[in-house]
Amino acid sequence: MPKNMTVLVTLIALLLGCATPRGGGAPAEKAMLEQELDQWTVAWSSGDPGRLLSLFSDDVYYEDVTIGAVSKGKAALREFATGIFGSFADLKFEPKSRFVSADGRWGSIEWVFRGRQTKDFPGIPATNRPFEVRGATVVEFRDGKIARNSDYWDLMTYLKQVGLAK
């Protein structure tokens, strides 16, 4: 009888272990975060700071590593985004790939940035010439929002395309 009881307890434990959901709905959360990354490129292409800001936490740390710009909090990010939207015409971000980590804490986007710089930007005079530059963004998620964002793109390719470097 004890042997049968041991087998029964083991069988119940195995069945309960198999029936218990793992990760608390992680696939649904991962899909939501992937959609958040898709919206990142849509928002940057929209020219609408409000649409962009809706993706970020209130205390976001947003960094454009290439130009050394750091925005801490939504008010600073709004100022940065408004400057970008006001300085570039035909601004479009085309997503190439995206990734969300299994734990849902980190994500990345590979993109192509296109447009024309129509107004001077700190350290970069406007030439109104078209450009197309590849870049990537690494994000940290918190509570379904982007809490940290780091953009990396090729400044030299940009400068060559707009006629500011050879």
Tags for this entry?
Nuclear Transport Factor 2, Chain: A, 6-stranded mixed sheet, 6 strands, 166 residues, 39% helix, alpha+beta
Q: How does this structure look, described?
A:
The structure is a single chain. The chain is 39% helix and 36% strand. With 166 residues, it is α+β, with helices and mostly antiparallel strands. It has a single domain, classed as Nuclear Transport Factor 2, Chain: A, CATH 3.10.450.50. Strands 2-1-6-5-4-3 form a 6-stranded mixed beta sheet. Strand 1 and strand 2 form a beta hairpin.
Q: What is the approximate shape?
A: globular
The residue-averaged pLDDT reads 88
Beta-strand fraction estimate: 35-45%
CATH architect. name: Roll
As for the number of domains, it is: 1
Portion of residues within helices? 25-40%
Q: Strand order of the main beta sheet, please?
A: 2-1-6-5-4-3
Order of helices and strands: HHHEEHEEEEH
- CATH fold title: Nuclear Transport Factor 2, Chain: A
End-to-end CA span: 86 Å
DSSP, total strands: 6
Largest sheet: 6 strands, mixed
User: What is the CATH top level name?
Assistant: Alpha Beta
- The structural class is alpha+beta
Task: Compute the number of helices.
Answer: 5
